[in-house]
Amino acid sequence: MTDILATLSTSFQSWYAAIITVSGAYELVITIIAAGLAYVAHHQWQKLLLVRLGKNEQAGIIRLALRSSSRVIFPLVMLLFVLAGEAILLEYEFQNLILKFLKPVLISLAAIRFLVYLLRRAFGQSRGIKAWEGLISTTIWVVVVLHLFGWLEIIIKALDASGLSLGDSRISILSVMKFSFFAGLFIVLARWLANLIEERVGKSEFISASMRVALSKVSKVVLYAIAILIALNSVGIDLTTLTVFGGALGVGLGFGFQRIASNFISGFILLFDRSIKPGDVISVGNRFGWVVQLNARYIVVRDREGVETLIPNENLITSEVTNWSFSDRHVRVKLPVQISYKDDPEFAMELMTKACEASDRVLKTPAPQVRLLSFENNGIQLELRLWVNDPQNGIGAVKSEVNLAIWKLFKEHGVTIPYPQRDVHILSE
User: Fold this and answer.
1) N or C: which end of the chain has fewer CB within 10 A?
2) 402: closest CA among 344, 355, 369?
3) Percent of the chain, pLDDT > 70?
4) Other CB atoms within 10 A of residue 16 CB
């Protein structure tokens, strides 16, 4: 560690000696002026970019070119002024140590920002990736700068000097940083491959909706696990040393997160047995709606009011679930109606069948039917049975439309709907 500090101290002294000279002062002034002019140019380009993008919102290539140029305009403009300043100093035979160093730094900054932006575009729009874009590009650029200074190897040795041993493996600050880097890199690649698989599977017409979700979830779990294992192996950690630790961690997680594990396993059971699929209309307890998402821990059910309920997968395995569209989407709706005894039931049944024409959602096949169920105290009990094939839209609207049509037809043709009546006999003593 002492040798490392001595080397860094010598390097700092050499750079300090170069800066405090007259040539170094000129170089610092040129650097500050170049940075200021580059900032102004970048700011003006941003204004022009907003106007230009407003006119070319739909032009993909132009939009990509303009967006990417905003990432490199500052280092490139600063590079031009640095080159001009370097030429002036050479004309008057001044040294250009700082400006000579700035040229590869600015070129690498422009290249790194441009490449990271292209990678973000390739992986798709994401707030997380966009937020990490600046950090990733800055980290890579700092590594390049340290390499140009000649300090990178020294810092690597310093980070590797502090560590501890676990069996045959040694864990240091450097190994932790390498693992974080490789894990992030491989997880990003795994996510990209998982999204690519999900996109390709989603376009297939020969795979059911539940199998699409299953393949997507399984591919993500497998790819993420492979990414972590490759990252561990890339930093030299023997995976066999993690056996005991992994076993203890597994036991702890088993006791502490058994409900989470149960929901996770139940989610895969639902996916593979195809009992519930995206788009199915289900009833769980007092919840009625259609399935919009199947996740690893829960499903999302949206009702007619637009409220989304998250139901744990375990509840769908252990409790009774009504799937209105398990084998097909045809659902029968029953409308009970009573008529008085003085009316003709056959004529009333014809009117009730005709009332089904008031709703476009009532299916012609199977045809609506009316049944005479019983003779009640106040009237004759009839029941209209009709079919719909879009239960996700609810059945309340269909009932309302058909009931209103029945009321109008009954009123038009003189058919009465009875109300409770009682005969009271008074006996005198």
Assistant:
1) C
2) 355
3) 73
4) 10
Is the separation of the CB atoms in 342 and 418 below 8 Å?
no
pLDDT category of residue 14 using cuts at 50, 70 and 90: low
Neighbouring CB atoms inside 10 A of 27's CB total 26
Asked if 353 and 360 touch (Cβ cutoff 8 Å), the reply is: no
Q: What is the pLDDT of residues 381-415, one digit of tens each?
A: 999 999 998 877 778 889 999 999 999 999 999 99
Domains of the chain by start residue, with CATH: 2-161 (no CATH), 171-256 (no CATH), 276-323 (2.30.30.60), 331-413 (3.30.70.100)
Strands 169-172 and 163-166: antiparallel
β-pairing, 308-312 vs 298-302, is: antiparallel
Q: Which of 366, 369, 367, 355 is nearest to 399 (CA)?
A: 355
CB atoms within 10 A of CB 248: 10
CA separation for the pair 151, 79 (Å, rounded): 23
Q: Decide the pairing of beta strands 308-312 and 287-294.
A: unpaired
Alpha helix stretches (DSSP H) within 124-172: 127-149, 152-161
Of 134, 74, 65, the closest CA to residue 107 belongs to 74
Q: Which residue has the higher pLDDT, 190 or 237?
A: 190
Query: What is the spatial distance between Cα 217 and Cα 213, in angstroms, rounded to a whole number?
Result: 6
What is the side-by-side strand order in the sheet with 369-375?
A: 331-339, 380-388, 369-375
Amino acid at site 11 = S
For 60, the token pair is 């993909």
Instruction: Decide if 324 contacts 281 (C-beta within 8 A).
Output: yes
Please name which of 331, 368, 363, 362 lies closest in space to residue 349, comparing C-alpha atoms.
Answer: 368
| Joined tokens for residue 385 | 């049975």
Q: Which residue type, as a one-letter code, is found at position 315? A: N
By percentage, how much of the chain surpasses pLDDT 90?
Answer: 13
Which residues lie closer than 8 Å to 229 by C-beta, 6 or more apart?
A: 239
Give the separation between CA 296 and CA 193, rounded to whole angstroms.
19
